[in-house]
């Protein structure tokens, strides 16, 4: 275990393995293999088992207006979907993650009849989950991004719940890690998969939760274009996660169904 983490660290020290990405998804006990940028694309693209959009490299996206901010580059769609019931968890698996500072968010977008011909840059995304600074100050505090890392060789697990009342259908799910450890040079790490959501829900978020990528973020957002190493940041113990409020489906149910 220790050996593995040292090996990982060693390999990270001087090489291109420096970032990381979303390798697999689990729902209950079922594992879904994601795209692997280190393997031959020809053996992955279009395979019946593929459920994740292609991300050609582990490198970050630096520009909030990058045309591939939604589902990474090139975002080639897979043929298959992860089946999941609304209310169940989907867990993103990273085999390692290094960067400690910045928010993590999860988004969904409805595809309509199929996700395959959908351009992730044109659909309406809504945020269903977020976590940022958990305690302490901005440069040195505990962020979820740091807390979710394991250094004993076990994978880093990121579970989120598909909103119980979400109406069934085909959706894209987008996991984004935003790393802000370099001054005024944010790094975005998005990956997307296709979901086939079942259940009995009827809800969908209101208009003000719907965003596009690019579009959801401003280059001038002080949470994105940020220098975390100033004296002021040492005194700052709050961090506003970009992209607006989350929609978890519960608020609307409670409004119409008091006592449910
Ligand atoms: C996880 O995904 C990687 C490719 O990203 C694949 O090689 C591996 O087999 C997957 N693991 C499981 C348990 O599905
Ligand atoms: C489901 O995900 C939530 C986070 O969204 C987490 O708090 C909870 O522990 C997860 N449940 C299981 C069974 O993994
Ligand atoms: C989605 O799942 C439903 C069953 O819940 C199934 O009937 C349907 O064919 C699936 N759609 C796709 C595109 O896989
Ligand atoms: C940070 O807080 C300390 C202690 O309260 C104070 O002396 C200092 O002026 C603050 N610095 C800034 C940049 O706000
Ligand atoms: Cu990196």
UniProtKB/TrEMBL annotation:
Family annotation (Gene3D superfamilies): 2.70.50.70
One Pfam family recorded for the sequence: AA9
Recorded catalytic activity of this chain's protein: [(1->4)-beta-D-glucosyl]n+m + reduced acceptor + O2 = 4-dehydro-beta-D-glucosyl-[(1->4)-beta-D-glucosyl]n-1 + [(1->4)-beta-D-glucosyl]m + acceptor + H2O
Subcellular location: Secreted
Gene Ontology molecular function: metal ion binding; monooxygenase activity
Domain of life per record: Eukaryota
Catalytic activity, EC: 1.14.99.56
Stated name of the protein: lytic cellulose monooxygenase (C4-dehydrogenating)
């Amino acid at each position: 275990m220790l050996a593995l983490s040292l090996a990982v660290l060693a390999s990270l020290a001087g090489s291109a393995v420096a970032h990381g990405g979303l390798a697999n998804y689990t729902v209950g006990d079922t594992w879904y293999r994601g795209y692997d940028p280190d393997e031959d694309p020809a053996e992955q693209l279009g395979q019946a088992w593929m459920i994740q959009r292609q991300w050609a490299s582990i490198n970050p996206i630096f520009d909030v207006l990058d045309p591939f901010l939604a589902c990474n580059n090139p975002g080639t769609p897979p043929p298959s979907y992860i089946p999941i019931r609304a209310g169940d968890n989907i867990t993103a698996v990273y085999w390692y993650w290094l960067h400690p500072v910045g928010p993590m968010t999860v988004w969904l977008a409805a595809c309509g009849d199929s996700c395959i011909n959908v351009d992730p840059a044109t659909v309406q995304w809504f945020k269903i989950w977020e976590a940022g600074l958990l305690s302490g100050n901005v440069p040195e505090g505990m962020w979820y991004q740091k807390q979710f890392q394991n250094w004993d060789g076990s994978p880093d697990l990121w579970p989120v719940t598909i909103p119980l009342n979400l109406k069934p259908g085909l959706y894209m799910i987008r996991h984004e890690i935003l790393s802000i450890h370099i001054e005024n040079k944010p790094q975005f790490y998005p990956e997307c998969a296709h979901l086939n959501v079942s259940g009995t829900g009827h809800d969908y978020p209101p208009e003000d939760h719907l965003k596009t990528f690019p579009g959801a973020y401003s280059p001038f957002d002080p949470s994105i274009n940020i220098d975390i190493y100033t004296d002021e940041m040492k005194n700052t113990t709050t961090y506003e996660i970009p992209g607006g409020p989350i929609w978890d489906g519960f608020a609307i149910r409670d409004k119409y169904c008091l006592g449910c």
